[in-house]
Amino acid sequence: MFLLIYMYVTANAHSNYANQELFFTPLRTFVVSVLAAPFVSIVLPCMLVVRFVLLYKHRQFPNPFWDSIGLVAFAYFVAFLILDMGSFNYFMPANILAYIYTLYVISLYGKLLIKRVVFWCVSVVVGFILITNAIPQGIHYFTINKIQIRNFEHMFGFLQAYLTEYPQTTLYFDGFGRGLDRYYYFPSYGAIFSILPNLYNTQIFDIKSKEPNGKAFMANPEAKFSFYNSDEVSEPQSGDLVIVTFFSDKPITPEYIQALHQKYELLFVTNNFGYMPSYNLMSLGAYVLQKLGINHSLSNVGNTFKLPSQMYVFRVP
């Protein structure tokens, strides 16, 4: 019913999700679904094939409840492939249904399945993907919500106090640039920039960019910050602040942080531990593609491992 309603509501749409979010393509969506949700993309289709082949062989009817769970999960998965929606968290509802249906099929045919080499081959492949990518990626996103959000809170608390004492200060978020074609997190910048004025009631400051502009950016003269109302790329001047977070869209290494220490004055650094960077098979693949200079839809933009673990505020001397 959900899919039918969705199709009806979007029947007159002129573009799909991938046209709006330039990094999502059918190839990327498929790879993400395999590496991030192997139960949906690999196990679930196998369970459905086993179930319906045996139903046909024994001239039995599907179970209207349990088999519907499997078919709904598969329909959900196929719909996301068609829409080119390939983010990790999108597959969570289908994942839950796939787990339930897998347990159901194994409860029926477990003794038969364990005698098949194919069953063990699929189990090894899925186990490898879970260990090297899906589970580490899940922990990464969990620690973003638990640790990095706390880092943001502490950093913006410091910025509020600093900007109250030093109004008219200009902020540069390191690795934040203009244009979705070049900066993966560009759509999220507005929410980050609005935290100080909306939540901390801090108004008298500006935000500029020192990173190259993408082609898909158009300045909005009515925007509050220079980041949006101008396409000028400028270097931080004396008294400006340079802020480094894991949202940076360029590689952040310990050497890079050390170079910033030597170039600027460190004013603040968070001290919250437990964050797990994006160390997984997919990020490693994106890193290798970057090093090889291969640029296509599987090549993540910039900061593949989502570093650093802490957030830094530097001042230009």
Explain what you see.
With about 325 residues, the protein is of the alpha/beta class. It contains 12 helices and 5 strands. It has helices spanning about 1-10, 15-20, 25-35, 40-55, 65-85, 90-115, 115-165, 185-195, 195-200, 225-230, 255-265, 280-290, and strands spanning about 170-175, 205-210, 240-245, 265-270, 310-315. A 5-stranded mixed sheet has the order 2-1-3-5-4, with helices on both faces. Helix 3 (about 25-35) packs across helix 4 (about 40-55) and helix 4 (about 40-55) crosses helix 6 (about 90-115). It is elongated.
Question: Could you list some keywords that capture this structure?
Answer:
single chain; 317 residues; alpha/beta; five-stranded mixed β-sheet; 5 strands; 54% helix; elongated
What is the secondary structure topology, with strand pairs?
Blueprint: H1 2-9, H2 17-20, H3 26-36, H4 38-57, H5 66-83, H6 92-113, H7 117-165, E1 169-173, H8 186-193, H9 195-199, E2 205-208, H10 226-229, E3 241-244, H11 254-263, E4 265-269, H12 281-291, E5 312-315
Parallel strand pairs: 1-2, 1-3
Antiparallel strand pairs: 3-5, 4-5
